[in-house]
Specification:
Blueprint: E1 17-19, E2 23-24, H1 27-37, H2 41-44, H3 46-49, H4 61-75, E3 83-90, E4 100-112, E5 118-128, E6 134-145
Antiparallel strand pairs: 1-4, 2-4, 3-6, 4-5, 5-6
């Protein structure tokens, strides 16, 4: 992302909102991701998944997190890229095949550094499906640079 459209610490305010584009997840993607990174039957086998806690195929939480990151990179225009510094993540409901995901992000807190040309920005990002059901809640601290003076 170019600096012309990127936001620096000085450009952000508590309450700023950013909404991503959408992404539709398929059963094939869920199975492929899980086969490589989270090989559990409720992620890799549609038939076996019927008899599990999820009662059907469900994406790995890490798959949902990866898709969230993809959508955030395009929708939360931070100068020099998104640099995480910890946070909390929860998956209140399972991401399913056919879900059309988007991410709604809100700036919760901004703390400028006293000694560095940057600050910490706390952002809540809710990954929701087409019905508004929250599939992931991420509250992350991000390092955001100040604009060069």
């Amino acid at each position: 992302m170019s600096d012309a459209t990127s936001r620096y610490l000085d450009d952000l305010a508590v309450g700023d909102n950013f909404t991503s584009s959408t992404y539709e997840i398929t059963a094939d993607e869920i199975i492929a991701f899980a086969s490589q990174f989270d090989p559990q039957p409720f992620h890799t086998d549609e038939i076996a998944a019927q008899n599990t806690f999820f009662a059907g195929l469900a994406a790995s939480g890490w798959h949902t997190a990866s898709l969230t990151m993809k959508l955030l990179v395009a929708s939360f225009p931070v100068a020099h890229g998104i640099v995480g510094a910890g946070g909390d993540i929860a998956w209140p409901s399972a991401t399913r095949p056919g879900d059309i995901l988007h991410v709604d992000s809100t700036v919760l807190k901004i703390t400028p550094s006293r000694s560095k040309p940057q600050g910490m920005v706390q952002v809540e990002s809710l990954t929701k499906n087409q019905h508004g059901e929250i599939r992931q809640r991420l509250v992350a601290n991000q390092v955001v640079p100040r604009r060069d003076h």
